[in-house]
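Risk register update: the risk of archive-format incompatibility is retired. Evidence:
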Amino acid sequence: MNYQVFADNLTYRTVMTLSLILLIAGCRSNDPLERYLAKTSTIQGFKAEIEITVGQSKPESVSIVREFPNGLSLSARNSRLAFTAKGGIDISDSEKLYDLLPPINPFFVPPSRNGLNWGTLYMIGFEAPTFRKIFSEKLLKADGQKDGISFYKFVYKTPGGDASYRFGFSSEGDIKSMVSEEPGFKINYSVKSYTILDQIPPETFALVPPDGYVQLGAPVELIGLSQGLKFPVDQLIVPTGKTRPTMKKPTLFAFINSEDPKAAETKAWLKARSKSVEVVTVIEGKSDSDFSIEFFDNILTGTPTFCLVKSDGIVEGVWMGFSNKIIQTTEKELEIALKSLKG
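Archived output:
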């Protein structure tokens, strides 16, 4: 992986990973993790300064203000992001541009057209069940101490091999660091400062653009590719001679980058699948013969991505990647999903 390219396109997804775990705690327990857990449901909010390092690239400094349950403010590289339950605003101070965003969905952020490339939609920082399960169900294992910091590690499986989260807590239960690592990919989060807030000024999450700033355009629509969400069929760009998919029966949408080395194999696999399910191919970039979609890079974390959509337009399942091992698993899970839809 080209770490520098990744760092140059640092996403707020990485920032929001830490947003959730920065629920600092303290209690009578001597165990740092127990102290951390003690106040996770009692604080009103916090502000923090975070340093994020992707691989060997230059560290990125990010400021976070969080007010539970819906307030979020981020700033980095002369760009600012503010969210409330009513919507959000993405501001580039260097370009004097702003973009209005739809209301928060607890699991997604809409694609960014401005400032940092943070819009991956998958908003890990708000996916509370993931980290709460890791913490509260004791899935973290003690992993040593250094300089007064106690480390805990959670290991999980990925198609490429073992991956892990490693958290560092002070004796008072303050989280000091997190390392997210998987084969060939590593992100370090270092907490430089953290303050619990009892009151947060309303202007912190103001959705009013600064004077003299220009709006990019009409507010973007929230696009989600996750089970249980409505598939954004209206966002598809329809090529000449074709009609928008009606999805009267289960449909498998395949998001493909034509320059991907596995593109030809992917298309051959899809052709075989078309015998059992309606297949619609969505190509990155403009296409005269295939469907495409705006913000392709923002709504996907990788290609190919396969999205099974039910006849009511709701996403039934999402699969990503193409290798002999991965695609075998995808085939089995897709078959099970299709059988369940047929009853």
